[in-house]
Amino acid sequence: MKKGNTLEKRINKELHDKIVKIHKNIKKDVEKAIKGYKKAWKGSEREVFAEVAFCILTPQSKAKNAWQAITALVENGLLFSGEAEEIAEHLNIVRFKNNKSRYLVELRELMTEDGELQPRKILSRQGNTFEKREWILKNIKGMGMKEANHVLRNLGFGEEIAILDRHILRNLAELNVIDEVPKSMTVKKYYEIEEKMKEYSEFSGIGMDALDLVLWYKEAGEVFK
């Protein structure tokens, strides 16, 4: 393939070899995580809702803190019935807690039909992965491209999309997959980089959802949501 040959000429071979080796070493953990994402989609409506809610809390906050906050809100029931002010009291470990608490309440209203939470039913109506993404971007307040893709990956739809956080972008730049880490990220730029990451995914033989986890592991030393 012409694309592959072009990428092969410019790729940082040393870093590429390191990434391939990491993937080989943690392949079982990566496969387990991906199976877990697909299982999450088949969970209860409340479990699916919690996954979506988690991604509202992640912007400019640590993923572990966001998940800790969601876990607490699930356990005390506030995620499913609390007012924004009540929810905010449990979001001290994430940034912009007041805005995000309102977004969670609005998400709950958006994902409720016939008096019941039905996020899987609602998302299932939206077509393929890319159509689901467009619906999320249009309808869920507090989510941009990265968060929309994070939701979809965590629900088992990560084969064709990229979660372009700073760790991923830095590695793509160091690999010479992209020229540089962009100073700002427009939707157009996001699509362009996502396509380049797909190109590298094909080149490396590591699926998109697995590649995200491998690059995260390279930076953080663990496989996490």
Structural description of this entry:
This protein is an all-alpha fold. 68% of the residues lie in helices and 2% in strands. The protein contains 13 helices and two strands, in the order αααααααββαααααα. It has helices at 2-10, 13-41, 45-57, 63-75, 78-81, 84-88, 97-110, 119-124, 129-139, 145-154, 166-174, 187-204, 208-220, and strands at residues 112-113, 116-117. A hairpin with a 2-residue loop joins strand 1 (112-113) and strand 2 (116-117). The longest helix has 29 residues, at 13-41. It starts with a helix and ends in a 5-residue tail after the last helix.
Number of strands: 2
For the report, how would you describe the main beta sheet? 2 strands, antiparallel
Low-confidence stretches: none
Based on CA atoms alone, the radius of gyration comes out at 18 Å
SS content category: mainly alpha
What spatial form do the alpha-carbon principal axes imply? elongated
Beta content comes to under 5%
Question: Which features characterize this protein?
Answer:
13 helices, mainly alpha, elongated, 225 residues
Task: Indicate the topology.
Blueprint (H helix, E strand, L loop, with lengths): L1 H9 L2 H29 L3 H13 L5 H13 L2 H4 L2 H5 L8 H14 L1 E2 L2 E2 L1 H6 L4 H11 L5 H10 L11 H9 L12 H18 L3 H13 L5
Helix pairs in contact: 1-12, 2-13, 3-4, 3-7, 3-10, 9-10
Could you give a quick summary of the protein structure above?
With 225 residues, the protein is mainly alpha-helical.
